[in-house]
């Protein structure tokens, strides 16, 4: 924030006025109303600006009592000359104001004109301004002069207030001076002997002449024990140098007041943190220096609280291990030191195997207990100079600094795995977990802390891909291709746990009405390092590894939840893997998704492929029949690319048949066009709706419309969009609903 000239003087003057937070004054509100009428604007304000806030002293057309100073428009105005007008015709087109809270939020101002309000000293305390919710380019020089004239009224109020304050202050000083000689000593002793703080009166050479009785309670001494001593007596040796420097500034006349914190020795030998405030005292009659007044306050408990807060900010509250923030601080320090000294540093990242199973089986209290035990075992396995941190969940990291040999890290990994493998008992239950560990060891003159951690993390993926409960050392020359599938699988598991997958939705358009019939849910994976990963890359791996079952259940639940917020009868189409249908609980998975979301069964359409139907297992057939009875729609996806499509149409009843995009793309070929028309005829003949995928041009649309397709989807209409944008698309009315 750029401050106006003489900022501290300005703030001091504002404080002396004692006007912040004062009651509304009708004549200032009237000035605001006159300005609003004169300039035909909805808002006018008299504003005062302190260190962090802009206060509404008078207002018209604006609610509240003030806004934050950072980015405020009046902060710009008070930096100008007193007789200048700051005019911003369009606040959203000016870099100084585009981020202002008054522009981004209520009252959503677009035009501003303001004049500084100054005291006799020329210090700008605030502004008089008008605002409009629409930009204005017609604000004339005459209007600017009129705005200045109105500002003079508000400014006169401030200067009159300043004069009253000055007069009151002079009167108060006279009264104080007259009574000071009469009762100053009595008042001092009354204050000193009733307060819980220790009050000390010292001579100009800092010798203590008087010590209040509170010294007995605070430090355990009698007052006379400290009379005749000096300020540095009883101070902790480690604090003497700093305290002596401050004391020298005070006695040398460079400052009149000082506030410090240092430790004082109690009579029993213990140490307390004391807040020490010292002030130069002057003779009320002559104004000459007369001595020093010191107050001592015990802040030991506050210091302990501050240490606890600082500790909590850098440590995990469950295990008391360093957290991610402290781990990164120490890693950066160790990497810098290792680079400077040419020594080795190692990072071990550790994930617990089967931890989720413990949580699901025995509950979160058991999981918390397990994490605490594991934290203790990790601490016991390392040196006192090493760092064990909990990064979150069941993820830990170990930092080894100044190791002589690289194999020290692998030896530690073996000890950790053996230690964590030992059973853990909670409420009579034996819990067992394993540990997968990734190791990166580096030495040299240019260590990169972030790169070191990433290498350790990559090695962790390799350990998981190798079967878990083992460790791997990062090897930059290893064959990445051989481990790619295992790494991707481990990353998929992590993404499922952390919420790395999301759904986009592509509209399905009813050709007869031109409205939206529904949306197809499309799974997307935005990898934090690799960016978007195509479904063709991770779906086959998910099917091979069995991850498709929990991933598919999440897709169903999320798609139903999103669709439940859409207007009826919009439906959502979800692709279902053959692996999911082979699970005996497929019907329960679908029913749970519908029940949890409140979506009607007829608004859910499951898209299956011919590959799944070729299996024709009893489980698949039973699941399809059960879902049809429930009311769920069934669609045959990529029709025409399999081997026995016609037989499927006889054996199963489909609500929808989807033509593969390859037929639409190949429409110029006469044979492809003929096959497409035949597929449409078959589908509609069996009473199914026929959807053409991949419609990206007007030519595509004309072709599928002529072929007899009932619905289409493709980039010609809309790309796949996140759920919030689908909601906005529906609410915008740009695409109407199908009848």
From TrEMBL:
Domain GGDEF: 343-476
PANTHER family xref list: BIOFILM ARCHITECTURE MAINTENANCE PROTEIN MBAA, DIGUANYLATE CYCLASE DGCP
Organism: Methylobacterium adhaesivum
Domain PAS: 184-254
Domain EAL: 485-734
Protein name: EAL domain-containing protein
């Amino acid at each position: 924030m750029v401050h106006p000239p003489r900022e501290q003087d300005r703030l001091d003057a504002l404080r002396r006025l004692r006007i912040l937070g004062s009651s509304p004054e009708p004549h200032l509100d009237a000035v605001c109303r006159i300005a609003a009428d004169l300039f035909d604007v909805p808002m006018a304000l008299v504003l005062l600006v302190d260190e962090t806030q802009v206060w509404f002293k008078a207002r018209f057309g604006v609610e509240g009592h003030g806004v934050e100073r950072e980015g405020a428009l009046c902060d710009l105005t008070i930096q100008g000359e007193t007789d200048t007008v700051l005019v911003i015709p369009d606040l959203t087109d000016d870099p100084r104001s585009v981020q202002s809270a008054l522009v981004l939020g209520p009252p959503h101002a677009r035009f501003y004109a303001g004049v500084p309000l100054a005291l006799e000293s020329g210090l700008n305390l605030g502004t008089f301004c008008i605002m409009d919710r629409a930009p204005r380019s017609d604000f004339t020089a005459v209007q600017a002069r009129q705005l200045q004239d109105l500002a003079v009224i508000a400014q006169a109020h401030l200067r009159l207030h300043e004069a009253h304050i000055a007069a009151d202050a002079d009167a108060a000083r006279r009264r104080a001076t007259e009574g000071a000689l009469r009762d100053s000593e009595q008042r001092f002793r009354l204050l000193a002997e009733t307060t819980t703080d220790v009050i000390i009166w010292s001579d100009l050479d800092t010798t203590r002449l008087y010590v209040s009785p509170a010294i007995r309670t605070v430090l355990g001494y009698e007052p006379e024990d400290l009379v005749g001593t000096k300020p540095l007596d009883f101070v902790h040796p480690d604090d003497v140098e700093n305290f002596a420097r401050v004391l020298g500034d005070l006695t040398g006349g460079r400052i009149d007041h000082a506030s410090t914190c240092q430790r004082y020795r109690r009579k029993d030998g213990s140490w307390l943190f004391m807040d020490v405030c010292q002030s130069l005292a002057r003779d009320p009659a002559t104004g000459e220096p007369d001595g020093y007044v010191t107050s001592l306050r015990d802040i030991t408990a506050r210091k302990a609280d501050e240490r606890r807060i600082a500790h909590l900010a850098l440590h995990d509250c469950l295990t008391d291990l360093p957290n991610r923030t402290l781990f990164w601080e120490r890693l950066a320090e160790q990497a810098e030191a290792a680079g400077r000294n040419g020594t080795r540093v190692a990072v071990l990242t550790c994930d617990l195997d089967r931890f989720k199973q413990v949580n699901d089986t025995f509950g979160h209290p058991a999981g918390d207990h397990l994490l605490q035990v594991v934290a203790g075992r990790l601490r016991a396995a390392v040196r006192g100079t090493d760092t064990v941190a909990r990064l979150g969940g069941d993820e830990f990291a170990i930092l080894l600094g100044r190791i002589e040999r690289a194999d020290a890290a692998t030896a530690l990994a073996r000890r950790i795995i053996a230690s964590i493998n030992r059973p853990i008992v909670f409420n009579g239950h034996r819990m067992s977990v394993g540990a997968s560990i990734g190791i990166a060891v580096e030495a040299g003159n240019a260590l990169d802390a972030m790169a070191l951690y990433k290498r350790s993390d990559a090695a962790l993926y390799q350990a998981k891909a190798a079967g878990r409960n083992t460790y791997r050392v990062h090897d930059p020359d290893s064959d990445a291709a051989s481990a790619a599938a295992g790494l991707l699988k481990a990353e998929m598991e992590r993404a499922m746990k952390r919420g790395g997958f999301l759904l986009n939705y592509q509209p399905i358009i009813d050709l007869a009405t031109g409205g939206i019939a529904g949306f197809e849910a499309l799974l997307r994976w935005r990898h934090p390092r690799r960016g978007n990963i195509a479904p063709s890359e991770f779906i086959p791996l998910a099917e091979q590894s069995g991850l498709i079952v929990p991933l598919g259940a999440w897709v169903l639940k999320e798609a139903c939840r999103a669709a439940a917020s859409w207007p009826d009868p919009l439906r959502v189409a979800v692709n279902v893997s053959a692996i999911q249908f082979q699970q005996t609980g497929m019907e329960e998975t679908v029913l749970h998704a519908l029940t949890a979301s409140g979506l009607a069964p007829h608004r859910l359409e499951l898209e299956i492929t011919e590959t799944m139907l070729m299996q024709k297992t009893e489980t698949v057939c039973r699941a399809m029949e059960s879902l049809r009875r429930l009311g769920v729609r069934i669609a045959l996806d990529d029709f025409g690319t399999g081997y026995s499509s016609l037989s499927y149409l006889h054996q199963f009843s489909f609500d929808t048949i989807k033509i593969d995009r390859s037929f639409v793309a190949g429409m110029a070929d006469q044979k492809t066009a003929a096959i497409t028309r035949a597929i449409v005829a078959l589908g509609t003949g069996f009473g199914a709706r026929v959807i053409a995928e991949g419609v990206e041009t007007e030519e595509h649309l004309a072709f599928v419309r002529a072929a007899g397709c009932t619905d289409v989807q493709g980039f010609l209409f809309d790309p796949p969009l996140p759920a919030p944008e689908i909601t906005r698309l529906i609410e915008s009315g740009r695409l109407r609903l199908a009848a």
